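Quick question, first post here. What does this chain look like in 3D?
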Amino acid sequence: MKISGAQAIIKALEEEGIKVVFGYPGGAVLPLYDSLLDSKIKHVLIRQEQNAVHSASGYARSTGGVGVCIATSGPGATNMITGIATAYMDSIPIVAITGQVSTDLIGKDVFQEVDITGATAPFCKHNYLVKNAQDIPGIVKEAFYIAATGRPGPVLIDLPIDVSKQLIEFDYPDQVDLRGYKPTYKGHHLQIKKFAKALKQSKRPVICAGGGVISSDASELLVKISESANIPVTTTLMGIGSFPDSHPNAIGMVGQHGNFAANNAISKSDLLIVAGARLGDRATGSLDKFAKNATLVHIDIDPAEIGKNISIDIPIVGDLRYVLEQTLKQDIARQDDYWIDIVREWKVKQGESKLNSGDNMTAEYILDVVSSIKDSDCIAVTDVGQHQIWAGRYLNIEKPGTFLTSGGLGTMGYGLPAAIGAKIANRDKQVMLITGDGSFQMTFNELATIVQEDIGIKIIIFNNNCLGMVRELQQHYCNGRYSQVFMRGNPDFVSLAKAYGIEGIKVDKKQDVEGAIKYGFSNDNTIVIEFLIDDKQNVLPVREEV
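> Answer (accepted):
Ran it through. Tokens below.
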């Protein structure tokens, strides 16, 4: 029996095992939404298309699968662009489906027409404009394969409305064969031996773990490498969760706003092992000062990332999981405790200073209390700003896939929709959002999605009535000349939550912090906990070293 192109898309999603999609309907996707009614795939009605991509991102990152989102043509599609670019920068597997005007009208500037494949080409792993419905099964199969393999990323399928109405015989392929797309999974064995020899001979080795460790499911192997060779492990922002914070070899986040012990260890290292990280400028700072006395080993499945930002001595192209498995078969055992003991002393110094806040209700103190109350498998999601850096530095994260944030693009407004996606995928787990008053106001309309889906998310707002990170940058780089950073006119967030039928608590005293957080986590309901913090609190000093 023949089915329509729209029905073929839905059937192909079912063939890929998709249970949930996030989206917003419109004229060009009417056939697609009509076909959804006959499917068991759950659709989550997000309140804006950009947030549909972020929700799909939260879903993908917390499950290890591919997230799916849908939007109509024109503004629906362009609203998705920031979400797609966010997923691209952070290597998140997404399949985004957009509606398009009829093929005979493309290029004529008709109502809600936009060249979305052209617009997203620079930051999509691949995209398709479907011109024949018979191609749909093969295109969907390829899209999921490309999104999830090699370095993961977003793929877009643009579906003209006339194509979605064409009738086809549905035949879903078992596999794909893409000429020119052959990700390298097995690192070269001679390079792995060279790496193992350098590790064995090093006196001050450090591992810098990125998001690639999580996406390749190599966290347990990373722990084994660290323990076998007595190596301290730092993470990038995207790598948080790849190594348990409670492990004695963990030394925190590296980078411009990273932890003291992590930055100091890299500066003093003689061997730096970069595992699944792209070494962005926020991680490295000044390139001529970054690990300047170290031999650099870079392991990444994407050959384009190796040597892109910094010269590498031992490049290894391959899947982290495979490379670490092969490395563990080599003789890498190091019995020297001198280096790890020094690094642990720096870590103790770092820990002693962070809570020295007196009676002030600092972000560090609040996050320390949150860490002591939340479950170990609680999924923490952040927006972007000072609160993101505080969460990266002070929140205790033990497991991969339990710290979700926008790293590469730094997208304010990522947090709430990503938390919704994570909670939809993990209804049995705690999910909390750490956000600021600026970021939260970019997407707080998604509180309605929370109510509609009847899910429980713990929303913690650090309210300093300003764009804290920009204010801090203006303090340091503009001699304290503050321009357009103070958010006078902020709503009462507790009343705002109440307007959506959600409970809220406002906290302005340190002695009330623990009670509020304990109450918030005491049941499965959504709650907004607003902390009024000092607008002069900073995340600096940058890259503090001894």
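The chain has a mean pLDDT of 94.
The two ends are 72 Å apart (CA to CA).
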